[in-house]
Amino acid sequence: MMQQSLIKRLQGIDPSRNIVFTAIEQLRNPEEIKRFYREYVEYLRTRGDEKVRETAKQVANENIGYVVVYYGEETSERWKSILEQINHPVFGRTNPFNNPVAENYFRGCMDAQNLMEERR
């Protein structure tokens, strides 16, 4: 019997949500995390625009690296130890929440986002 796509399973949890957030929240097993990464790269190769298709691994690394730091140090370290190639697009392998300058930057970004949402 053929195994269901991990991407499809995760999309079934919340089809309107970015799959990276759902994966980070749901996956703990290293083999599942690696499988998600492989499927996600292929997903980007087949569904992204031309630039994304050409750089699918880089996009996957940056997307996962960007999102995972918002889930705290334990989750971030778990994913970064399993997927050593992922990096935050600005801060690299550093967890910005362990860095006072980066933390202030993120707080400013979050404040700006909240303000924009309030104005809608």
Give the CA-based shape: globular
Q: Tally the helices.
A: 7
Q: How much of the polypeptide forms β-strand, as a percent range?
A: under 5%
Count the domains. Answer: 1
Can you give a write-up of this model?
This protein has 120 residues and is mainly α. Helices cover 69% and strands 0% of the residues. The N and C termini lie far apart (49 Å). The mean pLDDT is 85.
Short description:
The protein contains 7 helices and no strands. The chain is mainly α and 120 residues long.
List keywords for this structure.
69% helix, mainly alpha, globular, 7 helices
SSE diagram, text form:
Blueprint: H1 6-13, H2 19-26, H3 30-47, H4 50-54, H5 56-68, H6 72-82, H7 100-119
Helix pairs in contact: 1-2, 3-5
